[in-house]
TrEMBL record:
Matching SMART domains: acidPPc
Keywords: Membrane, Transmembrane, Transmembrane helix
Gene3D superfamilies, alphabetized: Phosphatidic acid phosphatase type 2/haloperoxidase (1.20.144.10)
Phosphatidic acid phosphatase type 2/haloperoxidase domain sequence ranges: 163-283
Species of origin: Acidithiobacillus ferrooxidans (strain ATCC 23270 / DSM 14882 / CIP 104768 / NCIMB 8455) (Ferrobacillus ferrooxidans (strain ATCC 23270))
Taxonomic superkingdom: Bacteria
Full protein name: PAP2 family protein
InterPro entries cross-referenced by the UniProt entry: PAP2/HPO, PAP2/HPO_sf
Family matches, as Pfam families: PAP2 (PF01569)
Signal peptide: none
Amino acid sequence: MRWNSFSARVSSGCWRTCISPFRAAGFLAFEQRSRGGCSRRGIAGSGSDILVPRVSTNPGNEPISPGEEALNENNRERPWYRQAAEVIPRHVYLKFVGTTTFISIFFVAYFYLLKDPAYPVTVMPRIWLDHLIGFQPLSLPFYLSLWFYVSLPPALLATRRELVDYAMSIGGTCLVGLIIFYFWPTAVPVAHIDWALYPDVDFLKNMDASGNACPSLHVATAVFSGIWLHYLLRRFGAPLWIVLCNWIWCAGIVYSTLALRQHVAVDVLAGLALGGLAASLSLRKSQSRDVFY
């Protein structure tokens, strides 16, 4: 039976349907994203195509980020850890080189301001919260784990654009902190502790002096990373206990800055505000670029 070809157009311009003999030796569908938000599908042996709007696979009609878009529908049905394992190798050289370069540049600027402050140094005051938290040398592993923790969000990003946006956002966060350190040098008050009794902590104190206190960039980068990790883990569909572990880890890092006497509570609160605000703005910027299909 031979079918006459016909076409129909809709005023929105998103539908253009062409139907020709379709009882062929099978169907071959392919999809190509176009600027109009439409998908092109072809039928093997027919020489025709069908251009239809792309339909969202997100039943909640929530924003779909470019990285989430890169995870196809089949992957979303797979276990979250397999999805994460598949994303990590993507742009692996950019992730490794970018993270290493960023941390190196940050430390150069950080220690320069630490050793040579441009203005008189202000000693930050203690408040009631500082007296509630005693010195805890066992919290040192949490403190040092920050450098691994901050590398997790970029490792779980799927696209080059997400990596660039993330780098610009966390770089801007650190830049704000460094500018504050330059114009308003601060230091934590002296802790009356014999550091020789705690050689590991003493080594940290010799490496990272008491300056560059407020806001705590240790806290700011931990909170920034924690918020982004929460977003990425939810995107992968990770279970609740994994999401909670992320926040326990983040809270441990924040707590360690007080427990090791690296910062006082005012520094921590300022770091929480800086990191939380920066992460929220960066996620909002990322979602503003999302496209509904």
